[in-house]
Amino acid sequence: MKLSEELKWRGFVNQTTFKDISVLDSEKLTFYWGVDPSADSMTVGNLAAAMMVRQFMEHGHKAVLLVGGATGMIGDPDGKDEERNLLTLEQVAKNKAAIVAQYKQVFAGLDFEVVDNYDWFKDINYLDFLRDTGKYFSMTQLLQRDFIQSRIGKGGKGISYAEFSYSLIQGYDFLHLHRKKGVTLQVCGADQWGNSLSGVELIRKLEGKEAHVYSCPLIINRATGKKFGKSEAGAVWLDPAKTSIFDFYQFWLNVDDEGAEDYMKVYTLFTKDQLEPIIADFKQNPASRHAQKTLAYEVTKLVHGQQAADKAVEMTKQLFSGEASEDALTVQLDGKTLLEVIVAAGLVASNSEARRMLEQGGVKVNQQKVESADVALNPGDLIQVGKRKFAKVA
To answer: Do 280 and 372 fall within a single domain?
Structure first.
């Protein structure tokens, strides 16, 4: 399948400066995609864009993967209703290393180059940047961008000059990579469309060359109509220290039936021929949750490796049978109450949420629904919260 056809089939068609994306089938381009180290891990939202990037790579386009050491020191204002807290240099360095490690995992076996925009920004003179870059940005156009308007308009919380300048920095990244690496395309998430166009304009004005942007659509939860990638505990991270491998697997296992096919196209490497029988089987018998089980296994394998995916499958089987293994999620009793155990196990975020689940009949101990937080617990007890969250008392 040609790249343009692959992008359409997988649902990766969104905004682009290309008049016809079939140009991606005939020309092999050097492109870049980047993630800012605002945290020490990517999320499943970043992973959607990464899976689109994989398609570009697998179809012969040359990838430059950027980790934003410079932009990470400022913080992208897009999508934020108030100013970010600045990270220290040590935090940025730690986050950069973590993001690069995830690049290597997600893009294992593929050819790519990693760059850090701090390497070229650290020595740039401020006055030179204003003259050579700032001179070519229109304040009128910058002020018209939606996220700027939301921050400076009525009810907005304002925006600092630092965050306002973010778009200039990203635009310069594109220019620099065009000059040094021959990059003519930026691939980005839907929220980066405006910032990415800054680079296109800068290259046109300063180099007299044509450059392009191709953006990944926002992945929407079909059942709720909201942005995909949130769990009850918040964002779903690729780092197992932030979202355990078991919880990561469970997130995919619990996706809605309506969107299962779309998520399979976005988040797995199955070809169309491989995916069609899986989806056909699922549609004939949705109760089997064959699509969700396959999706959960494949994404967990991609992000955490096959051994971890196999272990998540086994833990799920044991927990659902009420026979939690020694490797299952465990929490030490140590005199804790039921609510404290539930929170300590990470099944909910707070005591108040645990109490609410209890009052709504959403808590079981050893497969029996409990209504009182005063229930006595013993080592070996299996606690269930909601439909698919479990922990074992040790």
So the answer is: no
